Amino acid sequence: MKSLKIVALGAALALSLAACAGDGAGGGETDAAPAAGGDGAKTVGVAMPTQTSERWIADGKAVEDGLKAAGYEVNLQFGNDDIPTQQQQIDQMITKGVDLLIVASIDGTALANQLEAAAEKNIPVIAYDRLINGTENVDFYVTFDNYNVGVQQATSLLVGLGLLAEDGKAAGSATGPFNVELFAGSLDDNNAHFFWKGAIDTLKPYMDEGTIVVKSGQTDIEKAATLRWLQETAQKRMEDLLTSTYSDGSKVDGVLSPYDGISRGIITALQNAGYGPGQDAGLPIVTGQDAEIASIKLINDGVQFSTIFKDTRKLATQAVTAAESFLKGEEPEANDTETYDNKVKIVPSYLLESDIVYAGNIKSLLVDSGYWTDAQVASGQA
């Protein structure tokens, strides 16, 4: 949100996710997490961006539990979606003498000064799921194959529209044209650009042939972006699109959404405009990402169509594994040394794979794996 045996670490992280809860946003050090180990244990500073998303609460808890199980002290902080707050938190971690930093940045271009200070004290830095840009002082990156996440989001949209089957093959059951609107994440998050590129590369052939029509004409990431990934921002943009583009009686058939919170904002706007069961138009196909429990319930109920499951337990495990390597004076294992250019260097990375979640595979992907329970899926609450 140990011994070095992976079974023990996996168990610790699974338990941590089940307890997906957190203290007040932007609070101080977590309990039992001094900045430097009084008994000689090394300390890891963990900077997470926000507690407004259940995903980041779970990540912080999972990383913290994994590190503690491995025998390290942990200083876990949440930045409350405020750049100066996160900068100050990292400054304090460095001043108090952490031995390593794991950072999920709010703005991937805003931490150069902090990481320079870390480098001066020989503190390794692991970027967690969001690449830190514009600095040579980031040593490793753990994330998912973010381009492929975008491909999966677009693929699920095409499946929902009937253009593809779930196995990715042509379905032959629909021809279009379909009115689709495009949403992107926050431009200051490097991942948003990878998600967008993967999705647009996948949709472009259908757009070029006219099977998919972006009726608003807003096909640039700058116009589609959602600052800070905020649900209310996405809802307002969807409301504006409905007013400006669909007041002629035409209907939205699908919406590419890069994140579940954005998806819920989009869906709220659509429902308020008369889309849904018993209305003149059913809800469009809406995609998502992160398998947040509120959206999993919507998918189970036939409201949201899909999401992308990035098993953050695996991401936390990989972050802990990389941290252990650095703290032993070793280089962590990378499986990608070409893709992630932060404008100063290619950052060695470890990429994990993700899965598309539809209503039909919620049980096999999420429940059977222990990520969510049947009761949580039914209630929409963790």
Automatic annotation (TrEMBL):
Main location: other
Periplasmic binding protein domain sequence ranges: 44-331
InterPro entries noted in UniProt: Bact_Solute-Bind_Prot2 (IPR050555), ChvE-like (IPR049784), Peripla_BP_I (IPR028082), SBP_2_dom (IPR025997)
Leader sequence residues: 1-21
Gene3D superfamilies: 3.40.50.2300
Designated name of the protein: Sugar ABC transporter substrate-binding protein
Keywords: Signal
PROSITE patterns (UniProt xref): PROKAR_LIPOPROTEIN
Compartment list: Cell envelope
Domain of life: Bacteria
Keyword Nucleotide-binding: no
